[in-house]
TrEMBL record:
<dbReference type="GO" id="GO:0003735">
    <property type="term" value="F:structural constituent of ribosome"/>
</dbReference>
<keyword id="KW-0689">Ribosomal protein</keyword>
<dbReference type="GO" id="GO:0032543">
    <property type="term" value="P:mitochondrial translation"/>
</dbReference>
<dbReference type="GO" id="GO:0005762">
    <property type="term" value="C:mitochondrial large ribosomal subunit"/>
</dbReference>
<comment type="similarity">
    <text>Belongs to the mitochondrion-specific ribosomal protein mL43 family.</text>
</comment>
<dbReference type="InterPro" id="IPR039927">
    <property type="entry name" value="Ribosomal_mL43"/>
</dbReference>
<keyword id="KW-0496">Mitochondrion</keyword>
<dbReference type="InterPro" id="IPR036249">
    <property type="entry name" value="Thioredoxin-like_sf"/>
</dbReference>
<dbReference type="InterPro" id="IPR007741">
    <property type="entry name" value="Ribosomal_mL43/mS25/NADH_DH"/>
</dbReference>
<protein>
    <recommendedName>
        <fullName>Large ribosomal subunit protein mL43</fullName>
    </recommendedName>
</protein>
<dbReference type="Pfam" id="PF05047">
    <property type="entry name" value="L51_S25_CI-B8"/>
</dbReference>
<feature type="domain" description="Ribosomal protein/NADH dehydrogenase">
    <location>
        <begin position="3"/>
        <end position="73"/>
    </location>
</feature>
<keyword id="KW-0687">Ribonucleoprotein</keyword>
Length: 112
């Protein structure tokens, strides 16, 4: 057992069976990957999959990675910074400082 798989083997021996019994809706499959870093892979019902490498995680951090994959929806993350396009123009219109009809002088501003 090499150094990167040590914490994963410890997790599989101690906590993986408890996780599988607490979450019967999830299928847990363990596949050996000789000479490779340990990973946790999740397959979602929408056809997506997500993989996390746990080579530098301790045995206490691996359950957090597994729970985050369990709680993820499987959809890819998108930025929703889109402008609103409307068919109706604004009631007030576009602001311009030239629309203001009032005239001010510097002496009016000093007295206020």
């Amino acid at each position: 057992m090499d150094g990167s798989s040590k914490s994963m083997m410890e997790y599989l021996q101690k906590e993986a069976t408890r996780f599988a019994s607490e979450n019967p809706q999830i299928e847990v499959v363990v596949q050996p990957r000789p000479s490779k870093h340990p990973i946790v892979r999740a397959f979602y019902t929408n056809g997506e999959q997500k993989t996390k490498c746990v080579r530098r995680c301790s045995a206490g951090e691996i359950p957090e990675v597994v729970k985050s994959l369990r709680d993820h929806s499987g959809h890819k993350l998108h930025r929703w910074n889109r402008y609103v396009i409307s068919d109706t123009p604004s009631v007030r219109g576009i602001y311009s400082p030239f629309h203001d009809k009032a005239e001010y002088s510097i002496s009016d501003l000093k007295t206020k």
